Amino acid sequence: QATPSHPEPISLPPNTSSAKFHEFLRRASAIVGDENVVVVAGDDQLQQQDYMDRSKVHDMFHILEKEVFLHLCTVAPKDNIMRLANEMEIPVWLFSMGRNLGYRGAAPRVPGSIGLDMGKNMNKVLKVGADSAYALVEPGVSFFDLHQYLVDHDLRDKVWADCPNLGGGSVIGNTMERGIGYTPYGDHWIMHCGLEVVLPDGLLVRTGIGALPNPKADKNARPHEQEPNECWQLFNYGFGPYHDGIFSQSNMGIVIKMGVWLMPNPGGSQTYIITFPRDNDLNRIVEIMRPLRVSMILQNVPKLDNLLVSAAMEGTRSSYINSKELMTDADLDAIAEKLGIGRWNFYGCIYGPPEVREVLWKVIKGAFNQIPGSKFYFPEDRPHDKALQTRKNTFVGIPSITELDWVSWLPNGGHLFFAPIAKLTGDDAEAQYELTRRRSEEFGFDFLGAFLVGVREIHHIVCILFDREDPEMRTRAHDLIKLLIHEAADRGWGEYRANLALMDQVAGTYNFNDSAHMRLSEKIKDALDPKGILSPGKNGVWPTTYKQYNKQI
Ligand code: FAD
Q1: N or C: which terminus of the chain carries fewer CB neighbours within 10 A?
Q2: Does the structure show a pLDDT above 60 at 1?
């Protein structure tokens, strides 16, 4: 029976009658308030396509029809909702901000799950310890918010917060996905310290040294309100097993507080770009990068873009070429010449006071100068270079959304990330480039790819750009990525993150010793969540109760 506050949804969650669903809505409203329960009642709620005004119910860059992975309703908790979901056995799928574009947005793997919109009401920067350089945040704190907090409290001269390319994501959401930013603090998972987690059965846990109570805390307060241990954001491990890892890229719990290390203001920085003229310079560039990065002379997460990633920031495909045919190497060389950049463009940053920067720059420049034709610029040399000017900010933790521009390479731009890990060697980078470019072009796609250097490995980010309004092109993109996952695994390359439609396939490639890793994950999942209601199928981990949904798409 529909009520005025809860219209009839366009369909129902799995194994749930209309009466049961409305009972859930009624009880959820009583816990979180009517305004925090939003039912998807019609197609008009599936039209949002804008990054800043995002959809919380479907993937705005969907490769299958958007109805395939869809929430029927979102609930924005202020308080623990897991006990109700458990009691009523209705699957929920959590997100903090829902801007996980290129991987799935907010959409759930099991259609009809309830979207847990963790960010809407839990959105505070709870604490910044500027002297020890950390923050404690809730799920709804975006990179924009954390940066703004530091600005508003005059703290930027002391600490910076790392950010990924787009600032609208959640600090917690991105970290839980093991996302990447570009300062020396760019590996977000490494830089987290201390989690407060609600388990699927509703139990609240603090990890690491947070498990030891603060003697000054009010023991009568509810657990999540109790003042935490003063070392919680300073020391990751506590005593005994270290559980944090099982909550990342997983469906084992909901993080409602997280500590994040901030970067002490280094006393100055210098962004630079080095351009390399030839496509076949890649091997040497990477060979030069390795010793510099492993020894931390390259201090931050550097980014090596192929020409089209940089070019797509400056204009759409049709602004460069009239034809719909694939671009030839001659076309690419012409674009490089027009923009005054290289076939490969290396963006980096040096940190520290002028004397430190001077020495480091001398070493870096001397190393890359060995590649004939390489050119070196600072942002002030290229004031109209949008990619470089954006990097200059990202490298010092100032977030933006300018990088969205490359998504508009094609009309109605959507994209899919293929993100395999590679050894940081010239041969491996070249082999991944050869495979991914060749296959992309065979399927009719321009190749856009970036190598982000962790410390000893490369996150190779291949951007498969498609027209969202063209179903045939979406299918081709899907077929391409499925083939790439398969061929990459055959060469020992695993993805570090995957789109919703591909999680089962990618998880299936991590199958050493009769899929022992997955069997361990499933054991933990079934033990923590016997009814299997929290994000079933996330990263290919299916609880026993939802096994029938485990099929590659
Ligand atoms: P959410 O959608 O809120 O969460 C993502 C997932 O994390 C959820 O599905 C859930 O599984 C898990 N999660 C979220 N909240 C919690 C929680 N409270 N507890 C437990 N698990 C949780 N990504 C990068 O990392 N680096 C980049 O440089 C980057 N550049 C991009 C550039 C472009 C042009 C685009 C379109 C995307 C880019 N992305 C990048 C991908 C994406 O935008 C970001 O990773 C983004 O931060 C993820 O979305 P979100 O923060 O809104 O996460």
Answers
A1: N
A2: no
